[in-house]
Prior knowledge:
By secondary structure, the protein is an alpha/beta fold.
Amino acid sequence: xxxTSNPSPSTSGADEIPSLxxxxxxxxxxxxxxxxxxxxxxxxxxxxxxxxxxxxxxFDEAGIPALLVGDSAANNVYGYETTLQVSVxxxxxxxxxxxxxxxxxxxxxxxxxxxxxAGPAQALETAVRFMKAGAHAVKLEGGRRMAxxxxxxxxxxxxxxxxxxxxxxxxxxxxxxxxQGRDAQAAEVEADAHAVAEAGAFAVVLxxxxxxxxxxxxxxxxxxxxxxxxxPDTDAQVLVWQDMxxxxxGRPQRFVKRYAEVADVLxxxxxxxxxxxxxGEFPTKAHSFE
Length: 290
Ligand SMILES: Nc1nc(=O)c2c([nH]1)NC[C@@H]1CN(c3ccc(C(=O)N[C@@H](CCC(=O)O)C(=O)O)cc3)CN21
Ligand SMILES: CC(C)C(=O)C(=O)O
Ligand SMILES: [Mg+2]
């Protein structure tokens, strides 16, 4: 399906697709420049995570212009406690699946903890593995401290999305899941934002940054800001799809809005199936072979 030469959306909701990505724009494949141009037009957009074929195709058809194969696969796919545990080997096949299953969305691979911090050479080696798997860009965590890595990848022709503010991979150094940018820390987050943009990144995630600091950074940077818990004034917003769709149970983080209750839908389906099997109601003749 990903090999179709000039795909046109065949979804019932095609006329609801926003202009960044819609029929009128004739965008065959979203490129990083389209996201930068959207900022220049003041057009906001949404990013979601995806880790598999079906969500990738559904979100692509829904007009989501960028999909992130997050290292959040650690806790949302593999059942680890934190993102620190997931490896390049575990993420590469997920990136390949998402890339194979989309036609228009920009597929971004999140570099996992331990795969790029040592220096530009390590970062390049890892990023190349993800690009060969089908990614169109990579994302890595860290501002000023990762400027060299961002520059090296950019120089190698690999678009980079930065990620600053709260960076989950440095949870232990940061001292927990804490909002960034309050009071004197505002200048630190702003310095990181400028470092990432100057190093050549095409966009930057602002995670759990105060709304005022995120708004200020968004105004100052020429590249789009993608907020998660960063208030309403960033150029784009990102959520983990299992949070957004209510597949993950338990109290959602403050920055999450649930747009569906997929956990209930799925569990009710499982219960209905089990009930019918127990009652001898499934399968019927219609599901059987003569
Ligand atoms: N399912 C999921 N959603 C995410 O957003 C996400 C992941 N996984 N895994 C990787 C990182 C980790 N992130 C997280 C995870 C939890 C909180 C959290 O518990 N936040 C609380 C407390 C914030 C505070 O201390 O003020 C919240 O209510 O928002 C924040 C970011 C964001 N990413
Ligand atoms: C929350 C987003 C930005 C992320 O890094 C991830 O899903 O891994
Ligand atoms: Mg991540």
